[in-house]
Amino acid sequence: MFDFRNEFALPYIEASKKNSLGNEPPDCYIPAYRQKMEQETQKGLTKYLNEKNLSASILQLFLGGTETTSTTIYWTVLYLLHHPEVQQKAFKEIEAHVGLDRLPTLAEKPQLCYLKAVIRESQRMAAVSALIPRIATKSFELKGYTIPKDTIILVNTVTSLQDAQTWGDPENFRPERFLSADGNLLSPEEFIPFGMGKRTCLAENLGKMELFLFLSAMIQHFRLEPEDPEELPPLKGQIQMVHVPKPYKIKFVPRLQQ
After folding, report:
1. Neighbours of 158 (CB within 10 A)
2. What's this model's pTM, rounded to 2 decimal places?
3. For a tag on the chain, would you pick the N or C end, based on fewer CB atoms within 10 A?
């Protein structure tokens, strides 16, 4: 069985130790963690920041980020099958700002606002991480109920992501809800696919980057079509590790054949 900590994480941690941390802002996760760990050690606060938890958090970045990102892509592709006009509009935006001769990069991210709105609407509709677990650090009262310390609380993000009062028509796939009148991206506070506060998803920035790069490249090079044009796969999900769509088949048609 593959030992993630010893065979993957520790070699990178040991390699990082060969470089001095200094006072400059670190350029990646491991030295950033080590820098914070050293600061806490100097203060005598070493309860949680240690190498064991560092390797554990690296594992969470890979497992949590991979599962949620891939599932979000499955959902986005499924929504694009049901809304070919949205797919075409996203393609035209990529064609205008990137072209077709090279892959999109993060440098184009500010210009591809419609694509980012499509991704956000997919995240809102799918609610991949519908239930986010938290533990109460102290007892408190909530609407007449006493929540004891150490209670496991499941935060239901669907109540925010699909609230009719907030979104108006939450049952409809409409990326434009995330765009202002002048086409800039909007970030409503109710949009919480990664959670919120200091315990927000550790891999949020990594996930956003992966979703943008993967989906922009897919839409740029392929027209996504259902296996059977007369019968679209259902927009139904099932709870596994996360909220996943039911298996479906798709055609990837190279755009050079158009």
Report:
1. 13
2. 0.80
3. N
